């Protein structure tokens, strides 16, 4: 009886290590996918800076391009990683991030109002992406440190 319990404990312990290693590998893969958004992150920052300019320096085409950037960013985030990964903390964090970032499309949508209000809507959309991406990076940093990995590769451009 005692021998059976010892074997069960050993199997449970080994399977726990396996899961931890799988989770670590999944996190590394996820972070590598997130690094592919670095260029778009820079575009988001530039778009925020551009939309701070006075209304006479902003064209309707600028708003169209910013909305395209938002739509492209959200599309990339939605398709970059499956929403049903086995690593619970990563799954929950990723799904919340996707849901929050996806709201930027609605926030920045063309409401057919005057240019000044439309500029504000688009600015809200790109700032929304920036805010939640930075928060997501902080959450990923915590998971990264939990697995005792060094040199967290994600950072938000200034």
Give the structure's gist in a few sentences.
With 158 residues, the chain is an all-alpha fold. It is 76% helix and 0% strand. It has five helices and no strands.
Describe this structure in words.
With 158 residues, this protein is mostly helical. It has a single domain (21-146), classed as Four Helix Bundle (Hemerythrin (Met), subunit A), CATH 1.20.120. Helix content is 76%, strand content 0%. The chain has helices at residues 2-35, 38-51, 60-79, 88-107, 115-146. Helix 2 runs antiparallel to helix 5 (115-146), helix 3 (60-79) packs parallel to helix 5 and helix 4 (88-107) packs antiparallel against helix 5 (115-146). The chain is elongated, with a radius of gyration of 21 Å. The termini are far apart.
Task: Summarize the topology.
Blueprint: H1 2-35, H2 38-51, H3 60-79, H4 88-107, H5 115-146
Question: What are the defining features of this structure?
Answer:
158 residues; Four Helix Bundle (Hemerythrin (Met), subunit A)
């Amino acid at each position: 009886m005692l021998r059976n319990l010892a074997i069960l404990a050993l199997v449970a312990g080994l399977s726990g290590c396996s899961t931890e290693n799988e989770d670590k590998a999944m996190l590394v893969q996820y972070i590598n996918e997130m690094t592919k958004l670095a260029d778009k992150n820079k575009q988001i920052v530039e778009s925020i800076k551009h939309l701070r300019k006075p209304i006479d320096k902003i064209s309707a085409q600028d708003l169209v391009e910013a909305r395209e950037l938002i739509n492209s960013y959200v599309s990339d985030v939605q398709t970059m990683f499956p929403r049903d990964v086995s690593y619970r903390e990563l799954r929950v964090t990723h799904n919340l991030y996707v849901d929050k970032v996806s709201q930027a499309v609605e926030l920045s949508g063309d409401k057919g109002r005057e240019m000044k209000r439309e500029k504000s809507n688009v600015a809200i959309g790109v700032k929304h992406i920036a805010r939640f991406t930075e928060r997501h990076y902080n959450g990923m940093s915590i998971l990264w440190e939990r697995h005792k990995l060094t040199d967290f590769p994600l950072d938000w451009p200034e």
